[in-house]
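Sharing a chain and its predicted structure for anyone who wants a worked example. Both blocks are below, sequence first, tokens second.
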Amino acid sequence: MNEAQAPIPKPRSDLGIRTLSGVVMMLVAAGAIWIGGPVFAIFIALITVGLLFEWTKLVLELTPNPVARFFWILGGLAYVGLATAFLVFLREFAEIYILLGLIGLVISTDTGAYFAGRTFGGPKIAPAISPSKTWSGLLGGMTASALFLSILGHNTEGFALWQPLTGAGLAVVAQAGDFFESWMKRRAGVKDSGNLIPGHGGLLDRADGLVAVLCMTALLVVILQMTGQP
């Protein structure tokens, strides 16, 4: 067989390293949340600093305008700050299963979207922003999140219709957070927000959906409190 006929080698899959680093991240996060106290405080501080650092790096590549940079960075402080502050609030003043449930919901969304997208494919949602995201993946993520929250609710407070509806809705929020960060990266001309996590990129690449879900949940809690709902 001559060189012209030689098959082109397929790129090596990074699924193994992605899985391993994902498991390690989950163990570290779950351990810090479960232990609480100073360990959790240090963990949150490091995560917050890391997210804001990567956000700022993206902003500096996204626009050369100093005024625009200022407002983008200010927005990042509010966005990331609200998410991490709500994370602390949930750990200190709510049942721990609520916090772990939100994290599990985002993982369920990502997992359901990944496998549904790979299995069914189909039309892309916004190929100019995120070429790999499909409508079938979104529906898979919504289904997985709805099932996860239903099972969690059944085993903690008893099943209620709001659980799968909330799960599906927050799955859309998680995917929106993913799209938003992808849009920022496209504008900035970079593939990943960083290279801290093997196979995943940066912290913001891994936590974009969770940050969006935490912010939305925090706003919903505030609205329910203001309207006098339980």
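Comments welcome. The chain has one domain: 18-226.
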